[in-house]
Structure formats: structure tokens, C-alpha cells
Amino acid sequence: MSERQEKSARRQRWTLNGQALDRLLLAFDADREAAAQKYEALRRKLIDLFAWERSESPEDLADETLNRLARRVSEGTGIPNLDRYAFGIARLLLQEEARSLRARTAALRDLPLVTGTTPDSGMLKRIRRCLAALPAENRELLARYYSEDREQLARAQGISMNALRNRVLRLRQRLYDCVMRGSDL
Fold it and tell me: Which position among 5, 34, 80, 119 has the lowest Cβ density within 10 Å, counted as fewest Cβ atoms?
């Protein structure tokens, strides 16, 4: 196993626990309340950074950054400036995300095109019929999800990004079933 593969395997096996979190908070400040405030301030800055970089899930990446920082601190790595170190980790996560996106894009390009379906083959009519069968608020949610800032949409709906993604995923699955199998919504 290469050194890179070993590091990746170690990273995947490590999980944040109470002791690691305590060490991280202690590294922020000896006063637990002040440490918690510094932790939350850093988390907010990281979320803002990932949102600025248009990441798919800024909150998840901020949490992963802090988990990796906690791992380093729990391993005894002396880190003089936690914020700077965290932003270095964030930069690496952005690079990982970009590589992942390129790989997914390449995989999609390699998919064969579906042939035999043309707009006049009835598919377009089924899509329109299934969309019309959706309640208006669901149609609007789908349209807004694909045309607006998703984070703002989630806030406007009063739900988390994950909850928004799950709603849209369920709606898409209902549409797919309706269009492909002719089932009702």
C-alpha cells in the first residue's frame, strides 16, 4: 500500500470523539465558554468560505475541516495558529471537491446517449402530464431549486440544505416513476 493510500485509510478510520473535541476546544482557549465561541466563529468563517467558493455543501465541508483539525490536535500536532491551519485544511478540501467534481463530470461524459427518444415520441407529453399532476408548490420548488441559490432557498423554506436536497430527490423520483412507469403521483 502506498503512503498516500495509508494516509487515506487512516483518515477514513478516524472519527471525532469527545476526547478529541475536548482537546480541540482546549487548544482554542482554556476557558470552555470562550473556546466554544471561537470554535463557532471559525465554523461560521469556514461555511462562508465554502459558500463563497460555491461548494455543494458548505456546512458539511466546514464540519469536515474541523474534524480534521481536531484529529491533528488530538495526535499532538503543535499548531500555533488554529484558524490559519484550518483554512489550509479547507483549501485542501476544496481541491478534493474539485477533483471529485471533475471525476463525476468525466463519468457522466462517458455515459452512452439514450437513443430512440425524441420529443415527439410521447416522452415530452408524459413529462408535461406528470409535472402538471404535481401540486403547484412542488413544481415551484423544483423550478426554484434548479434556477436559484440553493442555500437561500433552504433558508426561505426554513429547512437545512440536506432536507432541501432530500425533498427535491423525492420529487424527482416521483416524477421519474410517473414518466417511466406511467404510475400516478
Answer: 80
Residue 76 backbone class (left: φ over 0; alpha: ψ -120 to 50; beta: rest): left
2-52 pLDDT per residue, tens:
666 665 555 557 788 888 889 999 999 999 999 999 999 999 999 999 999
DSSP state of 75: T
Cell readout for 157 is 423554506
Does residue 114 sit within a domain?
no
- Only one residue has cell 470552555, namely 32
Q: Would you say 42 and 83 are in contact if contact means Cβ atoms under 8 Å apart?
A: yes
Domain assignment of residue 25, given as a range = 7-109
Q: How far apart are CA 160 and CA 57, in angstroms?
A: 10
Question: Is the Cα torsion angle 159, 164, 170, 175 positive or negative in sign?
Answer: positive
